[in-house]
Amino acid sequence: MIRETILKQVLIEQRELIKPSLEYVERELLPLALSLSKLRHIVVITGHRRAGKSVFLSQIIHKLYGMENVYYLNVDDERLASLKVEDMNSVMEVFMSLFGEKKIIFLDEIQNLDGWERFVSRLHNEGYKIYLTGSNAKLLSSELATLLTGRYIEMEIYPFSFREFLRFRGIEVIEKMLYKTDSRAKIRKLFDEYLRTGGFPEVVHYGKTPILRTLFSDVITKDVVGRYKVRESRTIKEIAHFLISNAAKEFSYNRIKNIYGLGSVHTVKNYVEYLKSTYMFFELSRFSHSLKEVHTKIKKIYIVDNGFIESVGFSSTINTGRLYENLVFDELKRKRKEIYYYKDKAAKEVDFLIRKGKKVKECIQVCSNPGEETTLQREIKGLLIGMDEFNLKKGVIISGNREDEIEISGKRIEFIPLWKWLLVESWGQSPLENVEFL
User: Fold this and answer.
1) Per-residue pLDDT at 432 exceeds 70
2) pLDDT tens across 307-325, in order?
3) pLDDT higher than threshold 90 for residue 291
C-alpha cells in the first residue's frame, strides 16, 4: 500500500492540476456530457493519449459540479505505480478525510489499475456518479459489460475537430462567414495548416515540434509493448510506421507477414489489434450484403490524426489526396457514423458509404483535385455506381475547392470543399445523436 502521506500529496496536487486554463477550448462533446449528468449511468470517456480527455474531465467538473463537490484521481501518475485495486478502499478513506464525503468521482486513465471493474461496479451500486477515462479501446472489457449492462455510456474523444482548431485560434465560425471573401480566405489558410499538422491540442498550441514523434514512441512502448508484453518491439514499431505510411489505402495481413518475416498471419492480426486498441489506427471494412464477407474481405487503414502521417510516416512527399481522405474518415468517425467503403467487381470504388439502420443513406467520394479530368471522371463513375447500387438520388464529392452541383442521368452530384464540409457537418447535430446506452 502507498504511504498515506504520499497519497494525500498526490490527491491534493492532482486536484490543483485539474483546474481549467484560459487556453482550453470547450470541446464539442461537452453538451452531450452535460446532458448525461442527471442519469445514473457511468460515463466512460475513451480516446488516444493526449487527445484531451483530462481537460475534458476538467470542463465537466467545472461546468457541472465545482471541484469542491467531487473526487478526482489520475491513476497515470508514477507515484501511484504500485497502486492495486485492493488499495482503493484506503484511497476513498483519504478522499473523505481530506475533502469530506462526496458522491461524484472522476477516475482518469483507469486502465492502469488492474481489476478496476469490480471496484467501479461497487461504487455504482453505492450510488456514486462515476466518470472514467482510458486510452485503450479494450477498456470496456466483457467483464465490465457483464457487470454493468445497460448502466454505462461510452464517449470517444478525438483530437480537435476543425471547428475546435479554429476556436483555439480565436475564430468562432458562424454561417455567414462561409460566404464572405475575407473570412473564407482566412479559414482556408488555417485549413491548409490543420490538414497537415492535425488537431492534437499540444501540437495546435505549440506548433510543429517533435511532440507527435514522442507521442508515437510512448504509445508503442507503453500502450502496446508494455501492456501486451510484445517481445518483437522493433517489428511492431515498424508495422505501425508501415500502416501510417499507407493511410487511406487497402492493406493485407499477408503482405505485412511477408515484409517483416513473421511466422503467421495470426501474429500480424494480433499486432494490428494491439495497435488499434490505442486509438491510433482504425480499420474500414468493405461493404457487402454478406456479414461474413464484411469480416473477411480486405480492409483499409486510417489514422486518428493527419499529423502522424507527416511527422511519423516514411514518405518524403505527402499525398494530399490521402490526407483529404483520412481527414474525412476522422470526421465521420468523430460523428459516430457507421462507415464502409465500396468496390464493385470491376474495382470501381466509393470512398465512404454511410449506413443508418439497414440502409445505406449516403455515398461520399473524396477528390482533392477535381480539376484533373481523368481523376474527376474516375471519381464520378465510382460514385454513380454506388448510387445505383444503393438507389440514391444524390451523392457528394468532397473536393479541394470546387463548389457546385451537376446532374447525370437524373442523379445529383454535389461538390463541396473539404474545409467547408468539416464546418457544415457540425451544425444541426443533436447531442444524443448516435450515442449508445450500453
Assistant:
1) no
2) 999 899 876 567 899 999 9
3) no
Backbone angles phi, psi at 148, to 5 degrees: -125, 30
Q: Among 99-113, 141-155, 218-232, 393-407, where is mean pLDDT lowest?
A: 141-155
Q: Take residue 209 and report the three cell numbers written for it.
A: 515540434
Residue 58 identity = S
Q: Is the pLDDT of residue 182 over 70?
A: yes
Give the three cell numbers for residue 378.
474516375
Distance from C-alpha of 235 to C-alpha of 243, rounded to nearest angstrom: 12
Query: At 271, is the pLDDT very low, low, confident or very high (cuts 50, 70, 90)?
Result: very high
Q: Which helix (H) or strand (E) holds 74?
A: strand 71-74
What amino acid occupies position 390?
F
Q: For 38, list phi and psi in degrees, rounded to 5.
A: -85, -10
35-41 long-range contacts, CB within 8 A, separation 24+ = 35/431, 35/432, 36/153, 37/64, 37/129, 39/153, 40/124, 40/129, 40/151, 41/151, 41/152, 41/153, 41/437
Taking the model in full, what pTM does it have?
Answer: 0.93
Collect all residues with Cβ–Cβ distance below 8 Å to 54 and sequence separation of at least 6: 18, 74, 108, 133
Long-range Cβ pairs for the range 232-236 (8 Å, 24+): 235/260, 235/262, 235/271, 236/271, 236/274, 236/275
Tell me the mean pLDDT in the region 187-192: 96
In terms of C-beta density within 10 A (0-12 exposed, 13-18 middle, 19 or more buried), how is residue 84 classed? exposed
* Residue 232 one-letter amino acid: E
* 389 closest CA partner among 337, 338, 351, 353: 353
Q: CA Rg, the chain, in Å?
A: 23
